[in-house]
# Entry
Amino acid sequence: MLHDQLSKNLKEGETLVKLVRRDLLASLPALIVAAFVVLVDFFLLAFLVRHGTWGLTVFVAGLVAALVIGLRTLVEWRLNALLITNERIMHVHQRGFFNRMVAETTYDRVTDVRSTVKGVLQTALNLGAVEVQTAGEGENLRLTGVRHPPQIQALLTNILRAAKQDTAAPLTAQELVAALTKVKHELGPAAFNDIISRVAPNHDGHHPRPHA
# Structure
């Protein structure tokens, strides 16, 4: 469902590389709470029934609360994700049933990609967080409860490296002169001229031979 919704927003020529969701194990504590509420509700059923309408109201309220907790947990698990394409990264942050925020960044604005695994439980389950740090005032894109976070970090790093290589522009004449001037200043005129004489060809197109 999320894959289809977000795929409709892809630009022309943009392709989906990977859809990263939270692992269901990361939502296990909330599901355990919902199951515990149901068990307690049924355990007290006989006691609640003896109290008539008041008892039945408490029983139904317990079931509804457990249902809401369970459904909310499943919705957040299903819809919280990182959408990685060949052009950008989209972060879908779902809170509850009706609160969804979608943020995105292009690879030229990404400054760093990090993965974290904290605690014995996360280490044992190989769960953690992936964070994409961006330039500017925008918030970083962070998804928790991810399975194999170092692998996701490596994937993003490789895509980022390839994207920067593709967009790298050649130096202009002015930038090239400035760079050579800086090198000449750092090396000194004599060493700089010696390097140029070894690299630059003669008028006949041949490189000069090094002096013995």
